Amino acid sequence: MYKLVFFVPDSHLEHVKAAVFASGAGRIGDYEHCCFETRGTGQFKPITGAKPFIGHVNQLEQVAEVRVELVCHDTLISAAIEALRQAHPYEEPAFDVWQLSELSSQA
């Protein structure tokens, strides 16, 4: 099992979650579409060559974003990441992937 964590602007939250869930991620036992969300502020500065969805090159930006955490079976993690990349509005979405220990992956 893996834990997938990604950050997405409020405007695209449901769209990106739906794509990741469609890959099979977010299932715990007999429950699907399981996740935890935390709201916060993301910060970035696009540099020359970037094509930012939000903001302008060489200007520091702060954006209301949501951190989404969910679990994903080993066999589905690549598909979940691909779904995230395809659905996310940013050209470089921020995400983390952690492999869970056997003790925590009894889902």
From TrEMBL:
Highest rank taxon of the organism: Bacteria
Record organism: Oceanisphaera avium
Name of protein: NGG1p interacting factor NIF3
PANTHER family from the UniProt entry: NGG1P INTERACTING FACTOR NIF3, PTHR41774
